[in-house]
Structure formats: C-alpha cells, structure tokens
Specification:
Structural class: mainly beta
Strand content: 35-45%
Radius of gyration: 12 Å
C-alpha cells in the first residue's frame, strides 16, 4: 500500500508519530510508529467525525494530534 502525505486531518487515514515528549505523562504512543486513525461520529460538532487513535494501552487517544509531532497520510 502506497500512502500519500496530507495536512488535512479530515482526509487522513494514518498518523506517523515523529516525536512524543509526553510518553511518560499519559500519551502512550511510540515514536517512529504508524497508527490507524479512527473516527467517532457521536459528537455532531465534528462533521467528518472526531479523529482518534487506539494507543499502546488500548485506549482511545484524541490528544495525540495536539501533543505529538505527527505526519498525516491518506
């Protein structure tokens, strides 16, 4: 599968973690790893669904896009 880089979170299907300064403070994702982006459509404020990933502890993580340095792919 060939992935194409994007800056649009609404179009992205995968996220690559470049840097995570908060690993020991609750953001349990590993640098250098790619995660599939999931969508939660329960909140009507998000037209394309609220983006989240399932982190290494098996929890939904929405904050990864704000607290980590990431690259988005579609």
């Amino acid at each position: 599968m060939k992935l194409k880089a994007t800056k649009d979170l609404d179009k992205a299907r995968y996220v690559f973690i470049q840097a995570n300064r908060f690993f020991n403070r609750g953001c349990q994702v590993q640098e250098g790893r790619m995660y599939k982006i999931e969508r939660n459509y329960a909140n009507k404020l998000f037209v394309h669904g609220e983006a989240y990933i399932v982190d290494d502890e098996g929890k939904e993580n929405e904050s990864v896009f704000a607290v980590c340095s990431v690259r988005l792919y579609m």
